[in-house]
Amino acid sequence: MPIPEILSRNATLYGEEIALIEINPDIEERPANWKEYDLVETNPERRYRREMTWREFDDKANRLANFLLGRGLQKGHKVGILLMNCLEWLPIYFGILKTGALAVPLNYRYTEDEIAYCLSLSECDVLIFGPEFIGRIDAIRDRMPNVKLRLFLGQECPSFAESYYALTACCSSVAPKIQLSDEDDAAIYFSSGTTGFPKAILHGHAALMLSCEVEQAHHGQTREDNFLCIPPLYHTGAKMHWFGSFLAGSRAVLLRGVKPEWIVKTVSEEQITIVWLLVPWAQDILDAVEYGEINLDNYRLAQWRLMHIGAQPVPPSLIHRWKKVFPHHDYDTNYGLSESIGPGCVHLGVENIHKVGAIGKAGYKWDIKIVDEKDATVKKGEVGELCVKGAGVMKCYFNNPEATAESLKDGWLFTGDMAREDEDGFIYLVDRKKDLIITGGENIYPVQIEDFLRAHDAVKDSAVIGLPDHRLGEIVAAIIECKPGASCSEADIAQYCGALPRYKRPRRIIFDKVPRNPTGKIEKPRLREKYAGTESLVEMEMKG
To answer: Scanning 5, 91, 234, 445, which has the fewest C-beta atoms within 10 Å of its C-beta?
Structure first.
């Protein structure tokens, strides 16, 4: 069934129960662009907390839907969402879907040029944006001629937009009579854009519905669960993990902040049972506990049953550390792409902790295979490109038939990720196909070296890239981010890497922060651009 029907069902069955909670721990004074009655001060530390029942959730979605339909929006039109995580985000998303239009979430880190590009590529007719983006939208308003309506979610509405609050408040909260089917288009998401401008990914209602079923099948969400959502809602990973709770009719908390103490405090105060983390956040929590910045005895954490991680390769050393600190937690990891409607096409399973390091087996209602350059299935143990197939695969790259033809073949999505299958059928992610380093004719997969480096006591994070070399073609360069207060030198890392085969040892060792995008992926193009042409002491010594 189309996914808005779940919201209508939840409003009918659980109308007066809390569906969503927003917590912003870092507000020092009431923000000017939010309505006073929407803010509740809950303690002297000025942590602001807002909440919404299932009935209010559905009513707000219906009001927006009826407003948009009244302004001429039709089935198949597109509506951009450019908002920070907030209580209004999901009602807006579902309000768009109820009209039969497509929701088009935009990365809140996009530059002016990227916003204009994505609005044009996706052919957006409407844009809903928040106060943080006034300057960027003002700068490009003459570059988005297809956008006929600009709705502003805030109080002091700029002259080039109309007020979301004022226009939707008086609209009917009765569900619009728009017929939707599983085959209808539902949303356009954008690829991470780590290799250039992002591609527009088209999904239908059937794919969104499958993501609900997959997530609940994998993690068993019930009405008693409480999900903590921290990642940005514009990305499939955050929303599709929440979809399991959505299907169960259980509550969720949107936390606007990633500091370790905020996460642990929210888990304690809101009695969170499920937390989905990115690798850096899990690392930060463990560091804060290890350095005495967080005393777990001061929090109520017995109800926290599941910690799962996705969006990037997970270092086994991190999970071993996590289980020492939180031995009662179930751990799980999911693999997915925006092109395969987020998480779950490959799934480890909480019962397979002994296979930590693997991304798992085919997820619920998914098929997988690993192929060589001729698209033939490889033998177990051999490295090839991971392909997935299921109802959650995208329909296409919108307005990009060439890219679609490269990635979709006979219903299989070619992910661009290199993987191998062990003797028990578990899949291990080796690296991105485009991140492969070829040095002196040898193929090197950076993830293997990154995991090795992160096991060093002084290393918080690492990124391994290939940089041009006139003799070898490429050489291995390691960017090392040390733990706070840790002391480490290039010589220390070089000595530590002596345990690696010689051709895998980094020839450049650089101490710097490892940049990651909002979904936790390392921004390697930035690192390649920054460090091309540089030399480290280790490399100079090798030359000497």
So the answer is: 5
Q: 3-class DSSP state for residue 509?
A: strand
158 burial type by CB count under 10 A (0-12 exposed, 13-18 middle, 19+ buried): middle
Contact 336, 344 (CB under 8 A): yes
Distances (CA, A) of 445 to 43, 208, 326, 430, 433: 49, 33, 31, 6, 9
Tokens of 307: 């910690």
Domains along the chain? 52-204 (3.40.50.12780), 436-543 (3.30.300.30)
Burial (CB count <10 Å: 0-12, 13-18, 19+), residue 469: middle
d(CA 292, CA 288): 6
Q: In what order do the strands lie in the sheet with 306-309?
A: 48-53, 18-24, 251-255, 226-229, 274-277, 306-309, 330-337, 342-347, 361-362
Cα–Cα distance for residue pair 473/214, rounded to 1 Å: 43
pLDDT for the residue numbered 218: 95
What is the secondary structure of 65-104 as a DSSP string?
HHHHHHTT--TT-EEEEE--S-TTHHHHHHHHHHTTPEEE
Question: Using one digit for the tens of pLDDT, what is the confidence trace for 14-73?
Answer: 999 999 999 998 764 444 343 333 433 333 344 589 999 999 999 999 999 999 999 999
Provide CB contacts within 8 A for 247, sequence distance 6+. 6, 212, 213, 215, 216, 221
- Read off the tokens for 64: 């927006």
Polymer length in residues for the chain: 544
Q: Is the distance from CB of 440 to CB of 472 less than 8 angstroms?
A: yes
Q: For residue 541, what pLDDT is reported?
A: 44
Question: Which DSSP state fits 176?
Answer: P
Contact 505, 494 (CB under 8 A): yes
Closest CA to 509 of 484, 489, 487, 532: 489
* Residues 8/2, Cβ–Cβ less than 8 Å: no
Contact 438, 474 (CB under 8 A): yes
195 pLDDT band, cuts 50/70/90, is very low
Q: Which is it for the CA torsion 458, 463, 465, 467, positive or negative? A: negative
The two tokens of residue 356 are: 């930590």
525 φ, ψ (degrees, to nearest 5): -60, -35
Strands 427-432 and 412-421: antiparallel
Q: At what angle do helices 54-70 and 4-14 cross, to 10 degrees?
A: 140
Q: Which residues pair with 420 in a beta bridge?
A: 428
Report the C-alpha gap between 246 and 209 in whole angstroms: 11
Is the separation of the CB atoms in 91 and 61 below 8 Å? yes
